[in-house]
């Protein structure tokens, strides 16, 4: 329901919420002004922090992009860590995972746990600056998964992630629209990464953000991996098979449609974003395989259910994206080498 409201400026509820959105925008502008003028303090770090975030609420593919960026930076010879608030975790305070330790989603949150499973040092804290301070001594650069609006954490660069299909909705602020900050905020970001949407989506974002460094990437369902054995197979080899598909992500239909495009017969089971799965959630009364995203799998791998599989994702950067990143990496190297 709310998605339909946020996609149109003519929906009655959008107009009903507009006065509240105006007040929200005023508070947001005053808060940002406070940090820009120095009335509110940002916590600086000894190492550069790259924030990967979005202006809209809902899932746009930040975490897969963070994982890809981390690998890219590591290939450049940099030691990379990830910081996050750890949304949905059942712990409090600062929690860190490093040296390939097995991460538990209950302690870190599902998205940080997924990143830690890839071998990255990860720290979560209510105050992201605390997480930054914990990892800074052992890293050359830190990636903040979300946190574009967390101005208490100083940053060296910002990567704005945009959904190439939904774009910025009706371009109104919460609660009349999906924006956390006005659209003009995007002009201050170093890179704008548009997920999917094809040529039309890329052109639309460039039209809305003239002068911004806008590039495209996409996330493709790649492999099917068992959660209880070493079985791994390309997704296309599952074509024709009947499966249950579960997804506790921002846009479950994106996952279900990816499986359908690969030729699978999908019985879809959407769950709320960051849902904490229990074995009963996956009891569908038959022995058909149950496929899920990697983000959901970190919460289900201890179930010991041989029906469960995760579908891993592959990030594909579009033309010019790597070259733009190279320019940012060269700038960051200067910051890393500055005493």
From TrEMBL:
<keyword id="KW-0067">ATP-binding</keyword>
<dbReference type="GO" id="GO:0009029">
    <property type="term" value="F:lipid-A 4'-kinase activity"/>
</dbReference>
<comment type="similarity">
    <text>Belongs to the LpxK family.</text>
</comment>
<keyword id="KW-0418">Kinase</keyword>
<dbReference type="GO" id="GO:0009245">
    <property type="term" value="P:lipid A biosynthetic process"/>
</dbReference>
<keyword id="KW-0441">Lipid A biosynthesis</keyword>
<dbReference type="InterPro" id="IPR027417">
    <property type="entry name" value="P-loop_NTPase"/>
</dbReference>
<keyword id="KW-0812">Transmembrane</keyword>
<keyword id="KW-0547">Nucleotide-binding</keyword>
<feature type="transmembrane region" description="Helical">
    <location>
        <begin position="12"/>
        <end position="30"/>
    </location>
</feature>
<comment type="function">
    <text>Transfers the gamma-phosphate of ATP to the 4'-position of a tetraacyldisaccharide 1-phosphate intermediate (termed DS-1-P) to form tetraacyldisaccharide 1,4'-bis-phosphate (lipid IVA).</text>
</comment>
<keyword id="KW-0808">Transferase</keyword>
<keyword id="KW-0444">Lipid biosynthesis</keyword>
<dbReference type="GO" id="GO:0009244">
    <property type="term" value="P:lipopolysaccharide core region biosynthetic process"/>
</dbReference>
<dbReference type="GO" id="GO:0005886">
    <property type="term" value="C:plasma membrane"/>
</dbReference>
<keyword id="KW-0472">Membrane</keyword>
<comment type="pathway">
    <text>Glycolipid biosynthesis; lipid IV(A) biosynthesis; lipid IV(A) from (3R)-3-hydroxytetradecanoyl-[acyl-carrier-protein] and UDP-N-acetyl-alpha-D-glucosamine: step 6/6.</text>
</comment>
<dbReference type="Pfam" id="PF02606">
    <property type="entry name" value="LpxK"/>
</dbReference>
<keyword id="KW-0443">Lipid metabolism</keyword>
<dbReference type="GO" id="GO:0005524">
    <property type="term" value="F:ATP binding"/>
</dbReference>
<feature type="binding site">
    <location>
        <begin position="56"/>
        <end position="63"/>
    </location>
    <ligand>
        <name>ATP</name>
    </ligand>
</feature>
<protein>
    <recommendedName>
        <fullName>Tetraacyldisaccharide 4'-kinase</fullName>
        <ecNumber>2.7.1.130</ecNumber>
    </recommendedName>
</protein>
<dbReference type="InterPro" id="IPR003758">
    <property type="entry name" value="LpxK"/>
</dbReference>
<keyword id="KW-1133">Transmembrane helix</keyword>
